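Repro:
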Amino acid sequence: MRKKLLVAVVIVLVLVCGAYYLHVTGNLASAQTESDNLADDGGVNRYIENNAFGLGEKLSYDIGYGFINAGYATMQVVDLIEYNDRPCYLIQSTANSNKFFSSFYRVEDRVESVVDAVGIFSWYFEKNLQEGSYHSNRSYAFDQINNVVIYKGDTIDVAKYVQDALSILYYARTQELEIGKSIYIENFTDGKKYALEVRVLRAETVKVKAGRFDCIVVEPLMQTSGIFKHEGKLTVWLTSDRLKMPVLMKSKVIVGSISAELTDYELGEILDF
């Protein structure tokens, strides 16, 4: 079994934001949402209205690998902190294999993002992966004023208000989703920068362990390398209310299929800035 067997747990949870290496399918400048076109002074004064998530929100998932219950995962807005003299959300995603899966492949993954609470963009990203005998720790900081990221000692130019692999999901949740149209979001992940296209497909009602939800079904367009190369459609069910919670996620990979199903949720406090 290859190294990152359950890294897909985190990937599925942040599927809208492209924890895979995503396919560049469009020009962000020609397809930005109205809120992205707000005037600013060249600094970081963008304001994004956020009625979707807030302090204390916690989403819990069961992870399925084919017919096997492989583990569980969470996404949580852990704290409100000050970073670069800005109010920011500390957001954390964790993934753990269950007792059965751990008997032959133990997974303990944690991903964190520092997200500007006003402009909903990333300042800092960190991931710590422990998967079987594989261990990886990586972090990088975004200089959003000068539009660069410091990655492995190098300074890389990035798009304005670029997102990381976790923050992009939370940004997407603040956007208007119209059936039949796409949104495009710039992202930087592990040395690669790309624009993610998210197609908004249809409305659908689904029942998961956490309950029954009216949803909007979206499809991020993506490409990967290695064991998790994308073979079929990656499909995400987001609630059609203001929260846009990801309640169900399904994807095929080379060696099977992966799903994440919402089992429980705690709503956060929506803050004004």
